[in-house]
Amino acid sequence: KGEQTQGYCLEQLALMQNNEGLCANISVEYWRDNCHYHLGVSNRDEDLCSRIGDRKQKQDCFHEVALASNNALLCDELEEKERRSCLVKIAVSSRDISLCDRMDTPLGADACRLKVAKETRQPLFCDSIKYSSIKEICRADFSEN
After folding, report:
1. Residue 29: strand, helix, or coil
2. DSSP strand E in the chain: where?
3. Which of 27, 30, 38, 65 is deepest in the core (most CB within 10 A)?
4. Radius of gyration over every alpha carbon of the chain, rounded to an integer in angstroms
5. Interval 20-57: pLDDT, tens
6. Cα–Cα distance between 122 and 116 in angstroms, integer?
C-alpha cells in the first residue's frame, strides 16, 4: 500500500521484465532513479541514464555504460576527474590512443598516451608522446623488457 513499497515492487518488476516503461509509473524518485540506473547499465542505454534525477547516480550510470560499451563520448557527461579516468580506461581497452587527444591538457594527453602504450604493450605508441621526458620514460620501459 505504501508508495515506497510500490516503488520497490515496480522497480523489481521492471528489472525482471527488462521493461523500462514501468519505471515511469514509479512515483517515488529514489525507486524511479534506481529503475533507470539498473536498466540503463544492464542494457548499456545512455538514454535511461539521462532520465535519472540524482546527479551522482546519473554520473555513475553514464560511467558504467561508457566503460561497458567503450563509448568515449559518454565520458563527457562526467565531472572532469572522472572524465579523464574514463577516457584513459576506454583508450586502453579499445587500444585507441587518439582518445588521449581529448584530454584537457597536453601533459594529460601524454600521460594518457604513456598509460595506453604500457597497458597495451605497444612501443610504437611512445612515438605519439610530445613531451620528450615522458617519451623517454615510455621508451625506457620497453627497452628494459
Report:
1. helix
2. none
3. 65
4. 20
5. 999 999 999 999 999 999 999 999 999 999 999 999 99
6. 8
